[in-house]
Every structure is written in structure tokens, then in C-alpha cells.
Design a protein that fits this description.
- By secondary structure, the protein is an alpha+beta fold.
- The chain has a single domain, classed as Jelly Rolls, CATH 2.60.120.330.
- Helix content is 28%, strand content 19%.
- A hairpin with a 2-residue loop joins strand 8 (257-261) and strand 9 (264-267).
- Helix 3 (77-93) crosses helix 6 (177-201) and helix 4 crosses helix 6 (177-201).
- The radius of gyration is 20 Å and the shape is globular.
- It starts with 12 loop residues before the first helix and ends in a 13-residue tail after the last helix.
- Bound molecules: N-oxalylglycine and nickel (II) ion.
- Nickel (II) ion (NI) binds next to loops.
């Protein structure tokens, strides 16, 4: 595979992206083969892609994302309304929070991270069988969903799983089959609980968002961020907001996830046993800008690999051919609060999101009124 590290006259970006993709071995494959420097296709500084990182360093930020304790939500109505207020405040100001005492045992979280590690670290030949960009597949593994559209590639490989019902068992990768099924069931339950709290936080009845089918479909992304010798030259994940209603993220102890808050990058410091929750673009639209889907990114690190598991909650058919429209919730609009978005065809939105790739711009811009 030809990879350039310096800009010579013969650097052919498209050719190098193709060669990398055809290797089917991902960034991990590069690192395993002894590549120590960051190839130009991954080098964001070379194309001048800076992700607003001229801002003050995150270490100096006095802020940290809110942590919400879910222990008492079903026990005491007074506690519950306090939690709803916390969810409301966090969703409005941060678009991100962490939850503790969420009901999923820590051992299950650890096993899920280990399952993703086993997938990425299994025999390359076995792993390659899953490498594809065909989104109709229930299980796919690839590096950079936007490899050919984004301005710069990220130092990250990902396993995508949409099938996680016991009935899909045979289609799941053997090395993480059981834990995918076990984790999905629990995280889906948590998503329903969170949608209830978020519905209430919007002043709606608790079942509102679930009935709108905001969590009909779950996509699990098992990210693997190999360690990098030149971490300042590349990104783990470029600045973006999520293309779903709600995300529940599990990260390991390495760190590197940063959230944009008041125009500063704030690190989401790993908190043992916690899960990170964030509002996606589509919930941002439903709430008519009341709750925000916030930009975030993952830095590359010299430590690693870093492993994270993002569960994306979506409507059925977002990728399919059937049109499905979502716009600001009627109860939340009024004369003083006119709709800020037109009704969005989910397929049109997804095509736009994927087509532009992670490039620092919002995928909601074309849909704003
Ligand atoms: C994502 C994401 C963060 C992480 O999958 O959209 O932002 O820590 N992941 O991997
Ligand atoms: Ni994200």
C-alpha cells in the first residue's frame, strides 16, 4: 500500500484512500504493520483543519459536564421532578450529561468494552469478512464512514451493529455475540427511561418521545482508537453532532472526548461506571432549539487503544427508502415560538449528513427556516 507522509508532487489522495480502504485492516492494521507516522490522508494540520482548537486548553476549563444520579427516579415523585429539572438544565445548556446509578451493572459495561476490543483485535482475516460500506448489512466493520467525503480521515476503526435481537444471533460476530445481545437489551431500557425524563423536561407526557418512535431502532458503534505516535496531527473523531435522537455512550478510562461548551472544549473526564448521554440533531429539531445537539470530538492519544461504545437511538427506516418526516413538536410551538425547522425527511437528512462527512458544519443548516 502506498502512503505518503510528506507532500511530494506525487501525492494522490484518492488513490491512497482507496488503497487504505482496500486493505480492510483499518487504522489498527496500519499501526500493526509498523507505520509510526501519521500518513497525509489522516493529517488534519496539513489541510489546515483545526477544529477551533485555537481555544484555551481544555485543562484550564473550570467546567465539567453535569452528572445526574438516576437512583431514585421510580421511588419518590419529589426526587423524580428534581431529576427532570436536572435533565432539563443539562439538555438546554450542555446537550450532554453523564448518568450514574443507571441500573446497568459495571461488569456488563466492562464486558461490552472488552467485546469491542476482542472484535478489533481478532485475527485480521476473520475481521475482514465484515469490512464493507454497504449500509443494508446488519453488521459492518470499517474505518471512517466518511472516508471518501470528509476533508481528513480519522484515527479510528468502527464496528456497526444494528442487529442485536436474540433472533439475529447468528449474524453477530462470534467474539462479542453474547455481550452485544446482553448490553443492547439493557441500554435500550435505559434509553426508554431517559426519553421519559426528557419528554417530561420538555413539558410533555412521559411516553411522548417513545410514542414518536425516537428509540425504535438502535445502532451500536464499537469504536477502536489505536494509539498514535503523533497525536496532534490527527483526530480520533472530527468535530460533529450526532445524527440521531439520543446517544448513550460508554467510554473506557483513556479519555479524549471533548464537548464544546460556551465556545471552549471541555473534556468529558472518564467516570467509572457512568454512561454519557447526549441529545442528537433530531431531538434538537423536535424540541425546536430548546434542547441542543452539541458539537463534540475525540482527540487522538499516544496511549491506547481507546475503546468506546456509542448507542444511537433512531426511528425505523432512517436509512431505508420510505420517507418519514420529523419537525418541531406542535405542543412546543406557538406564536412567540414559531418553528425554527421545516419538517425533515429523515432519509434526506441522513443522505446529507453522510454525503458531506464530518467537516465541522452542522447537518441541520439546510433544514432551518
Ligand atoms: C460518536 C462519538 C465519541 C467517543 O460515536 O458519535 O461521538 O468517545 N463518539 O467515541
Ligand atoms: Ni458523536
Amino acid at each position: 500500500m502506498v502512503l505518503s507522509f510528506e507532500n511530494g508532487g506525487d501525492f494522490d489522495r484518492a488513490r491512497e484512500l482507496r488503497a487504505f480502504d482496500e486493505s480492510k485492516a483499518g487504522v489498527k492494521g496500519l499501526v500493526d504493520s509498523g507505520v509510526e507516522r501519521v500518513p497525509l490522508i489522516f493529517n488534519r494540520t496539513w489541510i489546515g483543519f483545526t477544529d477551533q482548537d485555537t481555544d484555551p486548553t481544555t485543562d484550564e476549563s473550570p467546567h465539567s459536564i453535569p452528572v445526574i444520579d438516576l437512583r431514585c427516579i421510580h421511588m419518590d415523585p419529589a426526587w423524580r421532578s428534581e431529576i427532570v429539572r436536572d435533565v432539563q438544565d443539562a439538555s438546554r445548556r450542555w446537550g450532554f450529561f453523564q448518568v450514574v446509578n443507571h441500573g446497568i451493572p459495571e461488569s456488563l459495561l466492562d464486558e461490552m468494552l472488552e467485546g469491542v476490543r476482542r472484535f478489533h483485535e481478532q485475527d485480521t482475516q476473520l475481521k475482514k469478512a465484515f469490512y464493507t460500506r454497504d449500509r443494508s448489512k446488519k453488521v459492518l466493520y470499517m474505518s471512517n464512514f466518511d472516508l471518501f467525503s470528509a476533508p481528513t480521515a480519522n484515527w479510528r476503526d468502527t464496528l456497526y451493529v444494528t442487529a442485536s435481537d436474540p433472533s439475529d444471533r447468528e449474524e453477530l460476530p462470534e467474539v462479542c455475540r453474547d455481550i452485544l445481545i446482553g448490553y443492547s437489551a439493557r441500554v435500550r431500557q435505559l434509553a426508554y427511561t431517559l426519553l421519559e425524563l426528557i419528554s417530561e423536561a420538555l413539558g410533555l407526557k412521559p411516553s411522548y418521545l417513545k410514542e414518536m418512535e425516537c428509540a425504535e431502532k438502535m445502532l451500536i458503534l464499537g469504536h477502536y482508537y489505536p494509539s498514535c505516535r503523533e497525536p496532534e496531527l490527527t483526530m480520533g473523531t472530527t468535530i460533529h453532532a450526532d445524527n440521531d435522537f439520543l446517544t448513550i455512550l460508554l467510554q473506557d478510562h483513556i479519555g479524549g472526548l471533548e464537548v464544546l461548551y460556551e465556545n471552549q472544549w471541555v473534556e468529558v473526564v472518564p467516570l467509572q461506571g457512568a454512561l454519557i448521554v447526549n441529545i442528537g440533531d433530531l431531538l434538537h429539531v423536535l424540541s425546536n432549539d430548546k434542547f441542543i445537539s452539541v458539537n463534540h470530538r475525540v482527540l487522538s492519544k499516544s496511549e491506547g487503544p481507546r475503546i468506546s461504545v456509542a448507542s444511537f437511538f433512531r426511528a425505523q427506516d432512517m436509512m431505508g427508502n420510505a420517507s418519514r418526516f420529523y419537525g418541531p413538536i406542535p405542543e412546543l410551538i406557538s406564536e412567540e415560538n414559531p418553528p425554527v425547522y421545516r419538517n425533515i425527511d429523515l432519509k434526506e437528512y441522513m443522505d446529507y449528513y453522510i454525503g458531506k462527512g464530518l467537516n465541522g458544519t452542522s447537518a441541520l443548516t439546510p433544514f432551518r427556516i
